[in-house]
Amino acid sequence: MSAVPSSPPVWDVIVIGGGPAGSTAATMLAKSGKRVLVLEKSKFPRFHIGESLLPYNRRIFEELGVWEKVSTAGFMVKRGAQFWMGDGSRHNRLDFSKGSFTDYPESIQVERATFDKILLDHSREAGAEVREECTVQRHVVEDAGVSVSYRNAAGEETTERASFLMDASGLGNLTANHASLRDYYSGHKKIAIYNHFTAVDMPQDGEKGDIIIVRRENSWFWLIPLDDQRTSVGLVMDKEDFQSLARKPDEVFHDAVKTSKAVADRFNNARSTMPMQVAVDFSYKNQALVSPRVVRVGDASGFIDPIFSSGVMLAMSSGREGARVVNEALQKNQAMTPAMRSYEKRTWKNVGIYWEFIENFYKLHFAQIFFQPVNKYRMVCAINSVLAGRTDLTLAIRWRLRVFFFLAWLNQYIPVAQRIRIG
Questions:
Q1: Which domains, from first to last, does the chain contain?
Q2: What's the CA gap between 155 and 37, in Å, rounded?
């Protein structure tokens, strides 16, 4: 770090990335009177995966002042999550309205192109300067500020200076990759093959809008209704398993559909609406989320398997909390604060709540209990609250979760639950 910056900062904060984390941070900071510049590489609206939200997203929407815009945009209401075995022999449903520890009874399924644009436009309205089609080329952190150089759609390069940098660059993981901070979760190198389809036979009536998760032996499907016609469907599997098949992604996807009755029965008339999409190696965490004058939020802080739809909620939560600690640092005129370190620990803790479920979901002894739920001592209610997006876990929730995970562990050695085949 050099002792003196080349020029005084023009902005209080530069935010790299205009997705849910970046727009959340920008709105929070702009509403607090800060000069905020958002650099987004794409032109919104743009396609993005990750369409299923959690009920506790609403708390953040309300704090941002964007709930009315989101709730009136025509998105599909999501009241529950269904978990099916691949052969269709067994399933269970979590109804968010029936959890005694859950404050919000429903959520939404969104088309991300529309949803993300609502959030980014709201940042503009809050006072943030948003520049789209601007690709960051490099960044430099100095003692008294940061500089970010970017190239716009016309190919012109510009450098802007700020007191702080918030990295919300998503899976691009810009600043963390530059500092070699990315660590992949051991044993969780995955590939996701996905598309949007019409005429998928999805639940109706009181279960309309439910997300469906289909557990196969070593992989799983998501089925997310976007509206009355379109459904997002994706297959997630180990990257090594995919490579061993030596087949094209669309061939692997459709073969998995045919051999999974719970999906095949819904695909009789399904038609894809675009070329098959692929994402690889997406479960990782960064070794550090903060450094002097830099805070990482959203997927630029880490990303986990999307099986429980926690991505957008965790991204927006980190964007909100990251903005708070940056705002405090600006007020104190400090490059690093204890609150920034606390943000880092809190973000890892929130991710860890979901990671424990994700890591265990792939294990037989856990799945056997998960697919045969018994709400004794309201343990299912405690699970419901977490899968609805609650991260401020009370003692009443925490001890029930610990009992549940202990029983799942014990099921390896003693038949706590009926022995059932998974897949």
A1: 11-75+110-184+283-354 (3.50.50.60), 190-280 (3.30.9.100)
A2: 19
